[in-house]
Amino acid sequence: MAASGCKGRLLSFLDYKTEKYIVAKNKKVGIVQTHPVIYHRWVFLSKKGYQEKDEAIQSIVITKLKGVSVTNTTESGLLIWGPEDYVIPPQGEAVLFVVTNFLETPNQKLGYCAESPKVLDGLCQEDKDCEEDKLVVSGHGIMSGRCLRKDENSTGTCEIFGWCPVERNLHGGAVVFCNRSLLSSAENFTIYIKNFIQFPKFKFSKSNILETTDVSYLKCRYDEKLHPYCPIFRLGDITARAGYSFTDMATFGGSIGIQIQWDCDLDKGYSECHPQYQFSRQDIAASNKNIAMGFNFRHTRYYKNSAGVSYRSLYKVYGIRFNIMVNGRAGMFNIVPTAISVGSGLALMGAGVFLCDMILLYIMKNGTAYRERKFEGSQYVLLILSSPLTTTGCSANIYLLSTGSQQPKPATRKQPLVHTSQKHRKPKNK
């Protein structure tokens, strides 16, 4: 028995297996079968799986602002603000700050004065609270040792040596600004952005400035429908496209991101590669009601009078910080990614066929019936059916009988088979 079983297993390797296709009228499995084809089509055509990609974009950004504003305050008087005054830094970089509002403490000189009452470390009741030559924590100078008070029952502030007078109390800044910016015309300032990019893998370089001889081109204003390739942007339009009011942002400041996106299909040619612009607000305090609202910092301007005495003006400036970011990628046809994409697609479709078979044969309710039809063993046997005896001999028909078929199939034979067995031999004449 063991020998016969081993022999059967050895002989089973000689069995020939061929595919049998069954058309299953099952829409659920049919839908599953279409997914690999749709996915491969999406990867190959929509995602350009036949292209070699380069995402290591090299970029340079140069900016230039234009516009003039006029302010008239008690401290500063009448001032004309140009780009050299309100743009920080003035040389034009990818990150720049535009002043839209300010508070000035003019004509500060080195000397002795009272510390600001906002500084907790500078409050005092008597002189011993103000240690001489000690720096005031978060203050404006060095203590002189004196406590300055209005009367004996009030809380005073330490006298300091520093730039005097100190910055005035800005508590309740909304009241000071009256909810508007001093540089009211800043909304109409324009920023000219020049962007030069390069994809080193393909040795491809380009600029966001169109190659044209039309002198009116650089008098345009960016509009995503009318002038999508114009490099000049109005500040009010930038904040509006980011979803915020310029007036609200200009009062206490904020941060705007300008995204330049390059997606270049180099198979289409040089002239078809253009940038796309997107705008968004980046600072967390998106509302002016937040306690940490806006964006501001301090800077000074130093002077010296005819007597050689140095003095300065202290500015606390509010404004909008612009951060210009450049991203991009380029693609070009290459046989290697094409072959990889085609091969992976064929493998995916093969896996899809296997998955559909598993669902159809082992998960669906009628899986048993499908398995019986798909996996069918066949062994053909030679069956001879003889006709009645004739005087000329015995003719016979040959049938190939399949154990997996319900009816025998006649074998094709040009001449009838004459059986010469002893049982049907022609009788001799007496």
From TrEMBL:
Which terms in the GO cellular component ontology are assigned?
plasma membrane; postsynapse
Q: What reaction is this protein's catalytic activity?
A: Ca(2+)(in) = Ca(2+)(out)
Ranges of compositional bias, category Basic residues = 421-430
| Positions of glycan attachment | 188
Q: Tell me where on the tree of life, at the top rank, the source sits.
A: Eukaryota
Residues reported in the UniProt entry to bind ATP: 64-66, 190, 296-298, 316
Q: How does it sit in the membrane?
A: Multi-pass membrane protein
Q: Which organism is it from?
A: Hippocampus comes (Tiger tail seahorse)
Q: Where are the transmembrane segments?
A: 342-364
The name this protein goes by in its record: P2X purinoceptor
Region (Disordered) location: 405-430
Q: Where in the cell is it found?
A: Cell membrane; Membrane
Keyword Membrane listed: yes
Function, as annotated:
Receptor for ATP that acts as a ligand-gated ion channel.
Give the InterPro entries listed for this entry.
P2X_extracellular_dom_sf, P2X_purnocptor, P2X_receptor, P2X_RECEPTOR_CS
